[in-house]
Design brief:
There is one protein chain. Helix 6 runs antiparallel to helix 7, helix 7 runs antiparallel to helix 8 and helix 9 runs antiparallel to helix 10. 15% of the residues are buried. The chain has a domain of 127 residues. The protein is rod-shaped. It is an all-alpha fold and 329 residues long. The chain has eleven helices and no strands.
Length: 329
């Protein structure tokens, strides 16, 4: 009987083992799915049931009357049951460790994915800010061009009125001239016009005083709207803006010249400078279209050769990537 008692498992040890299993399952419950937790609970319940049955069987053996010795077969059965319980418990622990490892891997993967997603969102925000700034800048340029065009139109409307008014005042002040004096007046007027035109031209080409030259050309146009040199005066106004690097103003001035005098010999030059102005403000598409127009309509002009060279230069240039602004903290 003493031998049997030595082989009876200690209830406190078994109870501690079950509590240990329960604690482990509770600790890792946050790392497993509901299905896996249910499976582990079933295994633990089964082990508890088997342990209870085993205890009952041992109690029966203890209380069974007899010679005081248990058969070897009963001891083997007890040992086998204990071994099976230990083996299954070991398997449960291994499964828990494996599940914990999978959880850690998934956790690390998800954290990395979240970090990468955050970086991509920051890049998208930076690109959005860049595009918004470019759109705002283009709107400002467009508004400036529209304002300039409006001013030019208003000036063009008022110019004939001022000329007529000045002519009427001149007629009132001057006495009636004889027929033989008319040619002399026209000659003097032509000399005056040529002198003022040359003065504005020299101010542009020799003295590089672009604003002053532009003002002289504008005054010349108002005072001599029908003079032969007036057509060129419109072109030189565009040149004053271009030399000042006011490319928006140059585009509008060249366009005004092209609409008024589409057959002037300086049209190819005006188109070429207008194309360069568009390229300078970042509108390469419009610039290329105008350069192609020069080659098509004026193939024998010097500007056509320049346009070909400029197109080749543009095609060789790599596309510029938008500069991402750093996000402010």
């Amino acid at each position: 009987m003493n031998r049997i008692i030595n082989f009876i498992p200690n209830p406190r040890i078994n109870l501690f083992g079950l509590l240990l299993i329960a604690v482990i399952s509770t600790f890792f419950s946050g790392c497993m799915t509901l299905q896996e937790m249910e499976m582990l609970r079933n295994d633990i319940n089964r082990l508890q049931s088997e342990n209870t049955n085993l205890k009952a069987e041992i109690e029966k053996i203890k209380d069974k009357p007899g010679t005081g010795t248990a058969s070897e077969e009963s001891f083997n059965a007890i040992r086998k049951s204990q071994a099976e319980i230990r083996s299954e418990l070991s398997g449960v622990v291994k499964d828990l460790q494996m599940l914990r490892g999978k959880y850690e891997e998934n956790k690390e993967y998800n954290e990395k994915k979240l970090r990468d997603t955050g970086i991509e969102l920051d890049l998208l925000r930076a690109q959005s800010n860049t595009y918004e700034g470019q759109i705002k800048e283009l709107k400002n340029r467009l508004n400036a061009i529209e304002n300039f065009v409006h001013i030019q139109k208003e000036s063009a409307k008022e110019a004939p009125k001022q000329v007529e008014k000045k002519q009427e005042e001149t007629k009132k002040e001057q006495p009636v001239a004889h027929e033989e004096q008319t040619p002399k007046t026209e000659i003097a007027s032509a000399k005056t016009a040529k002198s003022r035109y040359d003065s504005a031209y020299n101010m542009l080409v020799k003295e590089k005083k672009y604003k002053e030259s532009r003002e002289l050309f504008e005054a010349f146009i108002k005072d001599f709207p029908k003079d032969q040199l007036t057509e060129n005066a419109y072109f030189w106004i565009g040149e004053t803006y271009y030399n000042e690097k006011d490319f928006e103003g140059a585009i509008v001035a060249y366009e005004n010249f092209l609409k008024k005098y589409p057959k002037n010999q300086k049209v190819p030059a005006a188109l070429y400078k207008q194309a360069l102005s568009f390229i300078e403000i970042g509108d390469k598409k419009s610039g290329k279209l105008i350069l192609e127009q020069i080659i098509e309509k004026y193939p024998k002009s010097p500007e056509a050769e320049k346009a070909k060279a400029k197109l080749a230069e543009i095609d060789k240039q790599p596309a510029k990537k938008p500069i991402l602004k750093k996000k402010k903290k």
